[in-house]
Design a protein that fits this description.
This protein has helices at residues 7-13, 43-46, 237-242, and strands at 15-19, 26-28, 35-37, 53-61, 66-74, 83-84, 88-94, 102-104, 108-109, 118-124, 129-135, 141-147, 158-167, 174-184, 192-193, 197-203, 211-214, 217-218, 229-235, 243-245, 251-254, 265-273, 279-289, 297-303, 318-323. It has 348 residues and is mostly beta strands. It folds into 4 domains: 7-73, Immunoglobulin-like; 83-184, Cadherins (Immunoglobulin-like, Sandwich), CATH 2.60.40; 192-289, Cadherins (Immunoglobulin-like, Sandwich); 294-347, no CATH class. The strands form 9 sheets. It has a 4-stranded mixed sheet with strand order 7-14-13-10, with no helix packed on it. The chain has a 4-stranded mixed sheet with strand order 16-23-22-19. Strands 1-4-5 form a 3-stranded antiparallel sheet. It is flat and about 100 Å long. The two termini are 62 Å apart. It holds the Pfam family Cadherin. Keywords: Calcium, Cell adhesion, Glycoprotein, Membrane, Repeat, Transmembrane, Transmembrane helix. It is found in: Membrane. One of its GO terms (biological process) is homophilic cell adhesion via plasma membrane adhesion molecules.
Length: 348
């Protein structure tokens, strides 16, 4: 009816439904003209993180050699529950930690969109802790464990909690993760970095293996509680290929050659933690400065192999292209002809 086709004639001439891809999700019933599903449709598999999900197909009427376009919008249903990457979590908290302290919890993921996606978190199991949910820059929810009242290891060495993620479907779906908080014996001094942010500038030709910067954190405690180790808490995959952190000394070394033209800045978040579970973080920003390590490159784009001796002045005999991968003054190129020749260079 929508396409202006008469059903009896339509059946006699033959038809096909064509859909891009290997899976044919739809077929057409010749007796009724109904477009029906031929395979199970999973919106999350077809259109992950896309708000409007549409499948395009074509109806080919072979007798008429006509093609009609059809678009089917796939709407979301609440067929996915929120899920945690790890369902068993462990937190180690000192008994001297002040009430109000916050500790990040693992986030859940929900493949559905809109109201059917993750909407809230709930925490149950112990009155020593409460839950706070922070809004991330992209609108995501970040659950945090908040210490509601002081811990006493002699009273309870462990606290078992249940974190529940809830979506907005009707009925709502949930996912849970169990968290065990281990109370550590008095470690009342956390490591403290000598700087909140370490900033360093290095030339791009610094040798591989060089120490670019050393981060230092001090802990006033003794023994295991004062033994500081370092780790990279947050960094991009490229940064981890370029830089290496010594867990004992805090020295950040270069693993492979730097290239200003490839990347001129690296940032990472470093954590210092002691044997009692307390930690501090610092930002490290490494800026790569350029050196003149690229020579100008000349390429002949086009050239005449011969020219008449009566060719007028100004005749173009060759097209040249010159570039230098360096930037700034290191990338500025000046061209000239060598020798006493009846030619001149002209910048186009």
């Amino acid at each position: 009816k929508d396409l202006g086709l008469q059903l009896p004639t339509f059946r006699d001439r033959g038809f096909r439904i064509v859909l891009d891809g290997k899976t044919q999700y739809f077929t057409l019933q010749g007796k009724t003209g109904h477009l029906v599903t031929a395979e199970r449709i999973d919106r999350e598999q077809l259109c992950r993180l896309v708000e409007k999900c549409g499948l395009r197909c074509e109806l080919i009427v072979e007798g008429e050699m006509q093609v009609y376009g059809i678009e089917v919008e796939i709407t979301d249903i609440n067929d996915n529950a929120p899920a945690f990457k790890d369902i068993e979590l462990e937190q180690r908290i000192s008994e001297t930690t002040a009430p109000g302290s916050r500790f990040p919890l693992i986030e859940a993921d929900d493949l559905d969109l809109g109201r059917n996606s993750l909407q809230n978190y709930e925490l149950s199991g112990d009155d020593h802790f409460s839950l706070a949910v922070q809004k991330g820059p992209g609108g995501d929810q970040r659950p945090e464990l908040v210490l509601a009242k002081a811990l006493d290891r002699e009273e309870a060495a462990f606290h078992d909690l249940v974190l529940t993620a809830i979506d907005g479907g009707d009925p709502a779906r949930t996912g849970t993760a169990r968290s065990r908080v281990t109370v550590l014996d008095a470690n009342d001094n956390a490591p403290v970095f000598s700087q909140v942010e370490y900033t360093v500038r290095v030339p791009e030709d610094v040798p591989v293996g060089s120490v670019l910067v050393t981060v230092t954190a001090n802990d006033a405690d003794e023994g295991l509680n004062g033994n500081v180790k370092y780790l990279i808490k947050k960094a991009t995959h490229l940064t981890l290929q370029i830089l290496e952190l010594d867990s004992d000394t805090g020295a950040i070394r270069l693993l492979r050659s730097l290239d200003f033209e490839e990347d001129n800045a690296y940032e990472l978040e470093v954590q210092a933690h002691d044997g009692g579970g307390l930690s501090d973080t610092a930002e490290v920003a490494i800026t790569v400065t350029e050196i003149n390590d690229n020579v100008p490159e000349i390429s002949v784009r086009s050239a005449l192999s011969e020219i008449s001796e009566d060719a007028p002045s100004g005749t173009v005999i060759a097209l040249l292209h010159v570039q230098d991968r360096d930037s700034g003054t290191n990338g500025e190129v000046h061209c000239f002809l060598d020798g006493d020749l009846p030619f001149r260079l002209e910048k186009s």
